[in-house]
Amino acid sequence: MSNPEPNDPVIVGEFESELEANFIVSRLADAGIPAWVTGQLTAGFRAEAPGRVRVLVRTSDAERAREALREDADGA
Known about the structure:
Layout: E1 9-15, H1 18-30, E2 35-38, H2 40-43, E3 53-58, H3 62-75
Antiparallel strand pairs: 1-3, 2-3
């Protein structure tokens, strides 16, 4: 597998609701980290394999994003 490019997307979290994921995107934006949400259309669908909403950031921001999320979790 080749090395990822700095702008390649990487998942930093998976959530059950779009609301929760958008809250995380907002927290990351407050930390100066651009992020976006994917999977909103399947999150509310309930079947044998319910969907998840994912928060993605650029590879170059992934470690900072994970650290910001850890700090939020520790401070909560």
